[in-house]
Amino acid sequence: MRKKTYLFAFISMAIAISLGALGAHALKKELTPDQLDSFKTGVFYQIVHALALIGLVGLPKMVNSKRIKLGLNFLKIGPLIFSGSIYLLACKDMIGLGSISKVLGPITPIGGLIMIAGWVVLAAVFIKMDHKNE
Length: 134
Hints:
The protein is an all-alpha fold.
């Protein structure tokens, strides 16, 4: 689990940085300011959650819990859905997917809810942990 989570986080960071550079340079002339802002939001959330996964991957070693694995999986899946749908929505006109808004629009908040669920699950695990060394 740890090795796969690290690998996922590292690849996610590489993709996010690449897409951030693409947005800052190549897409500046192709997207409207609102579309570019949306694109940047997707990059930001992807980077934040990749960094979080790198920091949190040691949790299963501290506490062997299926809930930690569930929370980490939510933090993998949520940003994929959230940021991925934002990237496609922001670039829909440029890549010829103008009608995709009807499908992806409702999907974006689902990704956000999955991210929130991941953090809530991890918070619940932390609350239940034995904190004897405090």
